[in-house]
Amino acid sequence: MRYIFAVINNPTKPAVVLLSGGLDSTTVLAIARHQGFAVYAMSFNYGQRHVLELECARHIARATRVLQHTVVDFDLRAIGGSALTSAIEVPKDR
Questions:
Q1: Which of 12, 11, 29, 8 is nearest to 20 (CA)?
Q2: 75: domain CATH number?
Q3: Is 17 a member of any domain?
């Protein structure tokens, strides 16, 4: 599934923000906007267990009125298992 959300604007200083839907990438987006950049957001649907990440990214992109939000689909499971994509327990104390 691929989502694109666009707002018409005049992008004079474009910047791409990798938007995961979390606090860190949202902060980077806000800083870029504050510094006058025309923000394009990109998120990745890699088969993660928690689709809430992408829902949050879409909500943040709309709320901050980025010029375009693109979600790129690829299956990370194709290159190996991970606690991000399967029922493997999340490693702790590393």
A1: 29
A2: 3.40.50.620
A3: yes
How many whole angstroms separate alpha carbon 74 and alpha carbon 46? Answer: 5
| Kind plus residue range of the DSSP H or E element containing 77 | none
Residue found by looking up tokens 């499971």 in the block: 77
pTM of the model: 0.72
Q: Which domain holds residue 23?
A: 4-79
Cα(30)–Cα(8) distance, integer angstroms: 19
Residue 91 tokens, joined: 């490693």
Q: Would you say 41 and 33 are in contact if contact means Cβ atoms under 8 Å apart?
A: no
**pLDDT tens column, 20-58:** 999 999 999 999 998 999 999 999 988 776 788 899 999
SS3 label, residue 24: helix
